[in-house]
Amino acid sequence: MKTAANAASSKSMEMAGRRGLMLVLSSPSGAGKTTIARRLLAEDEGLELSVSATTRQRRPGEVEGKDYHFVSTSDFQIMINDRALLEYAKVFDNYYGTPSAPVMAALAEGRDMLFDIDWQGTQQLADASREDLVSVFILPPSTRDLEQRLLARAQDSADVVAARMSKAADEISHYREYDYILVNRDIDLAVAQVKAILQAERLRRDRQLGLTDFVKKLRAGY
User: Most CB atoms closer than 10 Å: which of 26, 59, 84, 193?
Assistant: First the structure.
């Protein structure tokens, strides 16, 4: 039976918590990062989606503030000028960017943020806060498989699909800039692999606040 003294001792031994992390998933369009991201968010209550701002048109089914913050080009430019973005990039004639204030607040509170962004955005996040970043690049099993996935989702015209396929080789060339690489041959396996990465990164020594004091108390016999 736990006594009041034991309870007080246990409470004094608790660490202060953990700083949150930024988990980035990147891939060529159609390689599966969005599907993996949705599964992670549904299955891991400790993970939140960082909602990007974008100047592109809203697609059917997308919700303002949930999928993206849809803004005008002029408003996006104001955010750039005010340095209110952690990262931003122009992709296929549209701008995408991450508002910095909500992300930094979440990390300070120990909440993990998920990013579905490209290699340009990942580089900027690394420049802004490398110690908080965990980056994963997702590859398709083959070029043919990638093209079939793009055609099957029927979201884009044939010209847009061709443009995305043309850009895929350049995107893939940046794989060395990422912490982890996985090939999405099976969606369930890919999700499990990213979960394993996330769990390991949450346990990193430098993310556990109060660890030094906790160890000192252990060594002192508390």
Answer: 26
What string of H, E and C letters represents the secondary structure of 181-202? Answer: EEECCCHHHHHHHHHHHHHHHH
Q: What are the boundaries of each domain within the chain?
A: 18-210
Model pTM above 0.85: no
Residues 6+ apart with CB under 8 A from 58: 64, 67, 68, 70
CATH 3.40.50.300 for domain 18-210: yes
The whole-number average pLDDT for the span 137-155 is 75
User: Is residue 9's pLDDT more than 60?
Assistant: no
pLDDT > 70? residue 15: no
Q: Which residues pair with 136 in a beta bridge?
A: 25, 180
CB distance 110 to 104 below 8 Å:
no
- With b meaning 16 or more CB within 10 Å and e meaning fewer, what string describes 11-25? eeeeeeebbbbbbbb
142 vs 31: CA distance, rounded Å: 10
pLDDT digits (tens, 9 = 90+) for 26-62: 998 778 888 999 999 999 999 999 999 999 999 999 9
